[in-house]
Design brief:
Blueprint lengths: L9 E5 L5 H10 L4 E5 L4 H7 L3 E4 L25 E4 L1 H9 L3 E16 L3 H10 L3 H4 L4 E5 L2 E5 L13 E14 L5 E6 L4 E6 L4 E4 L11 H12 L8 H16 L3 E5 L4 H14 L3 E7 L7 H12 L3 E6 L1 H8 L5 H21 L4 E5 L4 H4 L21 H5 L2 E3 L7 H10 L4 H4 L19 H20 L8 E15 L2 E14 L7 E2 L4 H14 L3 E6 L13
Parallel strand pairs: 1-2, 1-3, 3-4, 4-11, 12-13, 12-15, 13-14, 15-16, 18-20
Antiparallel strand pairs: 5-8, 5-9, 6-7, 9-10, 10-11, 17-18, 18-19
Length: 552
Amino acid sequence: MNTDIHQEKVVILDFGSQYTQLIARRIREQHVYCEIHAYNIGIERLKELSPKAIVLSGGPSSVYDKNAPIINADIFSLGIPILGICYGMQLIAHLMGGKVVPLETREYGRDVVYILPQEYYDDIKDKEKTEDNYKSKPQKVDIGNKSIFLAPGKLYSGLSDREKLDVWMSHGDSIIEPPEGFVITAASGYAVTASFENIDAGVYGVQFHPEVSHTPQGSEILHNFLFDVAGLHGLWTMRSFIDTEVARVKEQVGNDHVICALSGGVDSSVVAALLFRAIGENLTCIFVDNGLLKKGETERVKKVFKGHFGMDLHVVDAEDQFLSRLSGIVDPEKKRKIIGNLFIEIFEEEAAVIPGVKYLAQGTLYPDVIESVSFKGPSATIKSHHNVGGLPDVMNLILIEPLKELFKDEVRVLGNELNLPTEIIGRHPFPGPGLAVRILGEVTKKNCDLLREADVIVENEIKSADLYDEIWQAFAVLLPVKTVGVMGDERTYDNVVALRIVNSLDGMTADWVRLPYDVLARIASRIINEVKGVNRVVYDVSTKPPSTIEWE
């Protein structure tokens, strides 16, 4: 799709770094579109992508490993600006004639790097930022008991108000001899090459990770590469994305009909709002109330999509069907399969009575379509996070995935641009199988109703404390145990509810929230006093890993 917002494409070649997706997110924060590809996609494919800049990610390998991921050195002859990060920088040095050796002392964690003092950058500023002025003679700088020659770096323009920058290091090899034509622009405390550049070749490298929050000025360094070096303008915005995607969907769909499985979550809600703007009455949303949803969810979905937007919304009351199939089932995987299969059956029945249906819309996001181990090439199976996986094959519909280029945070911004209520776009993640995987043991209507009441207390108290937007996920779990309690003058033998409240960036790792004691006390007190059948509340203080966020 050759549109303005994609004309400034940056390609990230992945060498197995745990931070590769974070690099992409940081670049997109600069309003520049980027894509992640395996390092071994080949020169011809790279040319087809027509990137305006290339980033080589970090990775766990050494350039001298037997099976180290290596790229074709012809990449440096394409005339495209290149930035190497960590392993990517070492690979540049290795392929272009420099020397990389193992470090005696591995640099890992928080560190500082030294750049030239402000006066050298002021001198360039006075002469205008021409490439010739950046090629000034390197200056001798003393670092500890060693000396090293540093040159002013284009990546550090505008942030050289001090001679030391806080950074995050993670490497065991070091570049002791840059390739011919390169100058060293920063050094670590061990006088190790921390960055270099070759302005004529348009090739730059940083040994540290500018994409992580532990490098406070990392975004400015990436900005300098994207805008000062690559000459980009920042065309990638959610407003421009809407215009582009609406036009694309209109052209693709024409007068045909699209159905969308609407769960009420962020992704499916944004898909529905975007498609409604594009094709209006040619969209039908199907919402299946499976009896495993949050309290008031069906009414909320009706109010927003039928009431506010005026969409064609089919609401299916399938609570009895789901609870009947789940009767007596306690194994988590069996629960998930039963729910998924029944959802497909019901969705297929509903779609069959809608005339002229040709397309199915799903809320697939960019992380869903990136190979699970992309630096080794395409994986056999792409992990699917949406709750209608399998439907396209069953129903022979053409799949529409308007969010497949976006990260989760971008989807929330998009939802705001589409005027979705904050309660939709800002809500915490909710599992596809719903309360079924938050009820440990058999799923019954009684247990669902009990957990719904406890869960709404958790959400309300978190919101009352102005903590909801600071927390990734907060919910209640019904445990398959009962404990003795005393309420009034009577002995009780009732259920235990666990609270799971965590913070995370992407759900891959998570830490439990140190909730203020008074908030925790209010939640526990209200659940025990207001939810009949609960006499004990416990707090989950485990991290992911080793634990998962959901209990099943």
